[in-house]
Amino acid sequence: QVQLVDSGGGLVQAGGSLRLSCTASGSTFSGHVMGWFRQAPGKEREFVATISLAGDTANDTESVKGRFTISRDNAKKTVYLQMTLLSPEESAVYYCAARSFGWVPLTRKMNDYKYWGRGTQVTVSS
């Protein structure tokens, strides 16, 4: 079992930056591929980024390339999502997620993630 607590959301102006954090407990963090997803009101939850066990490989969705960076600190059992140049359309609840323990390929599919945080709200004002 993995418990995930995501934090760092808030209100930011368009063009601003935020860093989200997600801290894990209950399992060996370094054994889980991690990801970030987001869900805007009235929309489906969508993939944002994912990162490998060691943090040496990442994959993110096209719309955030060059602006968002996913990273992890296995010693702190934390995964981060650094977001820059935010736009109002990116206002959403952001969720961190963990895949099952062990080596698995990076994936963008929500159903491939077994554990989820409760989400942190990001609001970008225009």
Key traits:
126 residues
Choose one word for the global shape. Answer: globular
How many DSSP E strands?
Answer: 11
The arrangement of helices and strands along the chain is EEEEEEEEEEE
Distance between the termini: 40 Å
- What share of the residues lie within helices? under 10%
Q: Give the helix tally.
A: 0
Mean pLDDT: 96
Which structural class best describes the helix and strand composition? mainly beta
Strand content: over 45%
Radius of gyration: 13 Å
Sheet having the most strands: 7 strands, mixed
Which blocks of ≥5 consecutive residues have pLDDT under 50?
none
Outline the secondary-structure elements.
Elements: E1 3-7, E2 10-13, E3 18-25, E4 34-39, E5 46-51, E6 58-60, E7 68-73, E8 78-83, E9 92-98, E10 115-116, E11 120-125
Parallel strand pairs: 2-11
Antiparallel strand pairs: 1-3, 3-8, 4-5, 4-9, 5-6, 7-8, 9-10, 9-11
